[in-house]
Amino acid sequence: MRRCFRGIDGLAVIVVLCVCPIASCGGSSSMGDVGTDLQADVVDAAAETSDASDSLDVDVYEAPPGCPQVAGAPEGDIAAVRIEPEDVSLEIPVGEADTVQFKATVVYGDGTEFELPAGDFQLTDPAVGYMFDTGEFVSADNTGGESWVTLTIGGVCGSAHLRVTQVWSDPGDSGIEDAAAFVADTQDTKFGFGSPELLYPPDGALAPGDFPPITVQYLSDNPGDVGIVRFQSPAARFDFLFDPAKAMKDGGYAVLLNEAGFHLLPTIQGTEAWEITVLAVSVSNGKVKGTPLASKGREFRMTVQKAGGAFYYWNTGGVNGSIRYLELGKKESKPVKLPIGGCVGCHSISPDADIIAVSPFVGGAGFSQFNLALGDPITGKTPSWLALSAKEQISKSFTVAPAFSKKYWTDQVKRIVVPSSSSGMGGGSGLYSIDLMVGAVKKLIKGGDFGSPAFPAWSPNGATVVYTSGSEGGLSAFAINEPCKLFTVPYNDGDGGEAQPLAGADVEGVLQYYPAFSPDGLWVAFNRADDMGKYCPQAGASSGAASSGGTYDNCMAEVYMVRATGGVPIRLSKANGEGSPGLTNSWPTFGVTLGKYYWIAFSSRRDYGFLHKGTGSEPTSPQIWIAGVDPSALLLGQDGSFAALRLPYQEIGSGNHIARWGVPPRPPM
Prior knowledge:
Shape: elongated
Number of helices: 7
Radius of gyration: 32 Å
Helix content: under 10%
Largest sheet: 11 strands, mixed
Mean pLDDT: 84
Number of strands: 51
Distance between the termini: 52 Å
């Protein structure tokens, strides 16, 4: 650990600096009766000394930092309180503690001084550590920051500056043996010609506490002999060292951060926002040579709140594609066993992840129909509790993407809400409640909407279903090719009711689709595309021609949120990213945990640094990205989102869509 103390030059008498009540110097007191009695003795002693201070002619006395400024001269004979050392900087390795011994000296008006053996020492920020009446300071665990040590005697306040920095360093593959000593010589940096250009993570990203370590990516013409990825905050500094030669790949530099150090970031108390920079350091004889070059800083946030869960997504690799799941924090995705063959279309996962619902293309050429099938995601077996009449209903054509609710998915009852039709491609469909164990089938929409429902989402409490409504004849199973709106319909234990447009997601002439309820049921996230996207290069075709031009793979898609009861829609501009619209930010789903933040997963064709980058009319294949959203900002009508991060360990060479976020699958009994 490093210490830096600065004292007061000389022994000259200090003029009166401040007058303040004892309680006004802030902080929490650890002083007992000893300190109180001693203070009284000091004040009494002051009354018996000479009254040279009576001749002072000062109207306002500037208080030392940490002490309030007070008008008027002191009434007693104490001219000042001096605390030494007056400036202390501690660099403490994370998980360790350090101590500093402060001493206080009372300076009287006649120039005499008295060193206090104890006193009522205070900290303006008690979180940085503990002060004892003896003047001993002990740092707190995993807490840094800036504070003032103050002491008031006879109405006169003195202070000393204290800074505590939690530090962590990892030599990585840099070849540096003493990383702590090495980084101590890299505190002075400069930005200029040859400085690294940071590409990833994006500026303003937020990661949950259980997010896997990120791969920092940058470009540099002068990488130096040792590279450092630095996370800096007012309370802490983390340094990840690496060998640039080993990090070089495909014309850039990619550094996978040390997992232990990365997951220590959110443990620093009171620190969520960090500045991340990349340093290029020249080395001579094992020592830092010259001033390191540093990239421009970016803000990176990491919260103690975890996201948890697993992502069930459609992966386009292979002949017919597949559904894979990737548990957050795991380093490898696994295939989901499907209950039916064919080219996989839309899918859903039950709240407890014991059932995967898929609607593959079947029936020959032309995608003549979809059939819904239910199975265990580990074994692929159809559940034994599935009633025959329910199985017949879900096997009808164009039964796609069912919705689940925790309210109606227990050991005793298992229901889904799903669009279903038997009239073939482009035919009108209905929205049904299907009791899978009993076999009862009920149509939900009793009026208010005469379009074709698709993409339903069921509120967590089971009271409301939100869905997309397209014009009659505009529905083609997995896509709506005309302007569409969101509607809500009450569930009413399966009896349904009148449908109503969801205000804020019912704008005329645009696409509004793929809704999802927040885990508390207060908000609905959805896709909106103000342009049909028929000629957008980001649609994926080398010619620049579009996909369907509707809801399917629309390159103009962006993520919005609106209150579940309706309101002004909020564009999540930070999550949508630079270059949006045009990135195919599609099919948002919410994480399973509740806390300070919401977590949203969606697919996007944005660049992932230089490791997955589009060129010209060929964009990147879609990947799963995760963004945090602050609901307190949403309540003010503001964009509460943060920049999105790519989900690590997903397949980078194929397209990944529809990240259904749920709990990890349970092994079969």
